[in-house]
Amino acid sequence: MPCLVTKFGGTSVADVDHINRAASRIKEEVERGNDVIAIVSAMAGQTNELVDLVTRTSQFYDAREYDTVASAGEVVTSGLMALMLQGMNVPARSWLGWQVPVRTNSAHGAARIDAIETRNLRDRFDTGMKVAVVAGFQGISPEGRVTTLGRGGSDTSAVAFAVAFDAIRCDIYSDVDGIYTADPRIVGKARKLDRISYEEMLELASLGAKVLQTRSVELAMRYKVPIRVLSSFGEDSAAAEGTIVCDEEGIMERNVVNGIACSRDEAKLTIVSVADRPGIAAIVFGSLAEAGVNVDMIVQNISEEGRTDITFSCPTDQVTTAETALSEVRDRGELNYRALLTDREVAKVSVVGIGMRSYAGVAGRMFSALAREGVNIKVIATSEIKISVLVDRKYMELAVRSLHDAFELEAAA
Ligand code: ASP
Ligand code: MG
């Protein structure tokens, strides 16, 4: 029997009515002749509430008990979904992570999947079960304790099951009907993409298009599992084709640029006048890493009289941690600098596209578009398929819209 993985996010199982609707989708797939592994998230907002209960109970909580509590939301939805399907005469059974089992490492709160055993589920599929409703986001450690995979982890559960069971497809249902050329709340004319490559999706996911957990895209890319992102809210299921995230070989028409991403809460820090000699950058970024600061862009200027400036960006809520870490190394005499300048009012805007590998001129076109709007660029960083700039936060929306126009994303084929 062909096996299909379908995953329902929190908003798709937010209450009994939504579970009913999701169950109808699953039933349609069973009627098409598929065995279905349905991965469910917790009801919308539930995991936040559970995490909140943990932090209110214990300030320095034991991560193993955090996982016991945080995994509970999916326990509820897996049982409810199985009941709903049974009520529709679909032979369904719920499966918690340990029952499958989904074997993970012991990194509680952010565990990695080592292996998914397929025998138990296959035996049950062979003896009449049509749907395995699997609690997403959870597994079992080598010590036999419940683990969770990190926030948003049921996306990764879904892709991992698709890999383990060699599924024909992995459908991920959420409250958005696909991946867009830009955030539709910013660009009204943003277009839904039929297809997007894993590489582009990874850039967009890490740039703040919060549709798929980054790890799930990495996993899908490694094993070449196509993911279909679609909405469970559309009335007409045939119309809701969604967006397929796949290998670039699967994409005929490659646009130079496929998406404009932005992330609002960025900060820019400049360390003024540090010695330009080997080891300084290692001290700076070593201390930031140790403090847990998520450094993104890094720029170092040419030096004058043996001194240089280093600029980097990080999330706004990590600025204080970064400032403390740097002043500590300065106090210890390991680093000498004149000043630390902080700009908390910046945003990052990026253009992403695999076509950039083979087309010149993307940077020029991007910077001209920003110049026409009078948007000043503060920092530039590039990768093979992405150009990112930091701009004043108040110009972020304007920048995104003008780039969407400049790259003709509305009209592209
Ligand atoms: N329920 C978990 C969370 O909210 C996992 C998920 O939904 O993907 O992060
Ligand atoms: Mg999610």
Structural key phrases:
single chain, 413 residues, alpha/beta, 8-stranded mixed β-sheet, 6-stranded antiparallel β-sheet, 12 helices, binds aspartic acid, binds magnesium ion
Describe this structure in words.
The model has no long low-confidence stretch (mean pLDDT 94). The strands form four sheets. The protein has an eight-stranded mixed sheet, with helices on both faces. Strands 14-15-13-16-18-17 form a six-stranded antiparallel sheet. A two-stranded antiparallel ribbon has the order 4-5. Helices cover 33% and strands 26% of the residues. The chain is built from twelve helices and 18 strands. Helix 7 runs antiparallel to helix 8. By secondary structure, the chain is of the alpha/beta class. The chain binds aspartic acid and magnesium ion. The site of magnesium ion has 3 residues, from loops.
Summarize the structure.
The chain has 413 residues and is α/β, with parallel strands linked by helices. The chain contains 12 helices and 18 strands. It has helices at residues 16-31, 46-57, 63-70, 72-87, 119-126, 154-164, 198-206, 214-223, 280-290, 319-331, 362-372, 396-406; strands at residues 3-8, 35-40, 92-95, 102-104, 113-116, 131-135, 138-140, 146-148, 169-174, 195-197, 227-231, 243-246, 259-275, 298-300, 307-315, 339-352, 379-383, 386-392.
